[in-house]
Design goal:
single chain; disordered C terminus; Nucleotidyltransferase, domain 5; 36% helix; globular; alpha/beta
């Protein structure tokens, strides 16, 4: 009888800008890591071909892959088919379960909202049962953990903080509405605001340097975005009173002092005598959703437990 080979768990974080992979063994040790950036202005077939190519290049033994977790900012139906993704509308109709079955036919696959999985991963790392997670990147992701469980619950909806309306006459969001927090506080929205104030396009690197040097157009754009984000966070705090608010995402992590600016605006919005939650930058940086996807691959996210499988998982 042949000896059974050790299991591998694969996490995939599908973002609007890039895709990241992390594969772990049963002890939480990393066995593969990779990422790629989406080709600009590619259509669905080109996107899928790029994804297939990188899955092949991972070189994982399909027979050992026991679970695959996928974090993505799209709305899925019960069959794993994309029903809405404003930032990549061509993906509507794509079935993730069918796509991954091509590579890992015997694996259990769990697809969930990237913000929800990031919240579970960060809550586990912080050992905190009541957490609001805010991810600032290409869009605005949100995740809510209450009493140690994702809310409203994986498979029953997601915490769409990015589409909370904070200004009915505000900028047009990719979802079609006006005034969503995503239209005011996402990475692209802040860069657009900086470009308007500066009078010409602004790169992410230029924005960071501008903030460090206290250049007015950079500071003003970040202040506006953080103020908008603080309005949305304040609304959630009033409703559910989380113990901890965690700000993650690659954009927030890359802008100097981003969390401090959000915290200052939260303080300005506080009612007299109100206890504000602690605000922190995500401990897992821009990889909160990726680590959450690994939890989903292990089946831990389905149980909504905010704890790591092992400390090795967080390295």
């Amino acid at each position: 009888m042949s000896e059974r080979r050790p299991a591998i768990f694969l996490g995939i974080d599908i973002g609007g800008t890039k895709v990241a992979f992390r594969a772990e063994d049963a002890d939480g040790q990393e066995v593969r890591r990779s990422s790629f950036t989406w080709a600009p202005e590619a259509d669905l077939d080109e996107d899928v071909d790029q994804l297939r190519r990188h899955l092949r290049e991972l070189g994982l033994d399909a027979a050992r892959v026991t679970g695959v977790g996928v974090a993505l900012p799209a709305t899925l139906d019960a069959t794993g088919r994309v029903t809405a993704w404003p930032n990549r509308p061509a993906w509507v109709g794509l079935c993730w379960l069918d796509l991954l079955a091509e590579f890992f036919p015997s694996a259990e696959v769990c697809c969930a909202d990237d913000g929800d999985l990031a919240a579970l991963a960060e809550a586990g790392h912080a050992a905190c049962a009541d957490v609001l997670y805010v991810g600032v990147g290409t869009g605005i992701g949100g995740g809510l953990v209450l009493g140690g469980r994702a809310h409203p619950g994986l498979g029953t909806g997601s915490c769409e903080l990015g589409h909370v309306v904070i200004d009915r006459s505000g900028a047009r969001c990719t979802c079609g509405r006006r005034g969503c927090v995503q239209a005011e506080a996402s990475g692209p929205a802040i860069l657009r605001g900086a470009a308007r104030l500066r009078g010409r396009p602004v790169s992410f690197q230029e924005l960071g340097e501008g903030v460090l040097n206290r250049v007015p157009w950079a500071v003003g754009a970040v202040e506006h975005g953080c103020a908008a984000l603080a309005v949305a966070v304040t609304g959630v705090v009033e409703l559910v009173q989380p113990e901890l608010v965690i700000v993650g995402g690659g954009f927030a992590a890359g802008v100097p002092g981003f969390v401090d600016v959000v915290e200052a605006h939260l303080a300005c919005l506080a009612r007299p005598g109100q206890r504000l939650p602690e605000l922190r930058l995500a401990a897992l940086g821009g990889e909160s959703s990726l680590y959450g996807a690994v939890l989903a691959a292990r089946g831990l996210a389905a149980r909504d437990r905010p704890r790591p499988a092992s400390r090795a998982s967080w390295r």
